[in-house]
């Protein structure tokens, strides 16, 4: 968390964990054209963080060796206003009303390069990332970094690749930091993300949903491609699940009990236990014997399962009441018979347990196969939809059943006073280009073009708050302000 002198960051030579290295390798294999994609590292639960820290943890800092996120030689870049192209960034995004810290790739990206300045303390430097607190950096090239999760931060173990959100990076500031040459330290990438409150997360999720819906409405091919990729991935995962369950079932069926259950004639099952019955009058003080249970046919197997050990020994094996000329002989005979019953009962329980395991595994496999069949149909349907959208005439957005309104020229905008063309800053929903922008009311208002509805979206320049939607031909307000909308980060 930030202190009085800035944000404390500890950098280690081994900061890049095997998990992150695996994520970067995973991202390189993905080929999705319609959006950036990412893998969640951890999820933030602000309400839980607040319980443990009344002041609330305000920043999440991640650092990686610069060589792992860019192929450019950072040390040779010019000193003034340098930026560097990067393959991945570590940024915050929102999904299912939860803020995440994710590794993102898939689109051209660049970050500032800033120089670390030495302090009076050996091994400690300061650096300023635009938009973030001053960083107080301590460097240790010998001791591996030990990363512990703060309360309210949960590690993501799935590491699934998914499309990154439209608002990804909205509360993150990052840069590559290079150190003086005589320090001996390599450049590092540092990402600083604000921890959002539950209300802020909900507001950003609403904005994410709105922008996703707006983009989807004008990009049916890309939406169909996304749905196809999702369906294909679901089917692939279910195929792996079916295979895993089939292997498990086959393993159970190929055990000694499983083989006997399928064909006891070909795969008889025997169990034997060594026993001793004490008889003081006998040489050696008693009798040693082996109690053995065997099932070697379907009929005997079924009889044992249905009757139990005692009835099986008495009725199937026809070992009736024990008789002997002496009391010691009777004792030995009963011990042998009782031991045999006990061993048959144990064998029976092994068979019942294995049968239950096989039945459960079969039910799980059947359920997975049914699910796979549905996912196969879903994939076929998604593929047909994608082909249908791709084969439609591509004369413009209207061909897909959606309105598209080209941006007006500045002189065509009426009723909003003296407005001037501004520098576009807000990305379009498809990631290609930025929204056209105008400045009005002597710099106090900002207007951006909504091509889906043919309206001007107004914002207050001082704080980015939404002012409503306006008719470009008359300046008349068409919709009221939306308190959830704000473009402060694009001002």
UniProtKB/TrEMBL annotation:
Q: Where is the Pyosin/cloacin translocation domain?
A: 1-216
Record carries keyword Coiled coil: yes
Q: Where is the composition biased (Basic and acidic residues)?
A: 201-219, 371-421
GO BP, one example? killing of cells of another organism
**From which residue to which does any coiled coil extend?**
221-255
The molecular function terms in GO held by this entry are:
hydrolase activity, acting on ester bonds; pore-forming activity; ribosome binding; RNA binding
Instruction: Name its species.
Output: Escherichia coli
Annotated protein name in UniProt: Colicin
The UniProt record lists the keyword Ligase? no
Under the heading InterPro entries, the entry gives: Channel_colicin_cen_sf, Channel_colicin_N_sf, Cloacin_colicin, ColE3_ribonuclease_sf, Colicin_E3_ribonuclease, Pyosin/cloacin_T_dom, Pyosin/cloacin_T_dom_sf
Give the superkingdom in one word: Bacteria
Q: Which UniProt keywords apply?
A: Antibiotic, Antimicrobial, Bacteriocin, Coiled coil
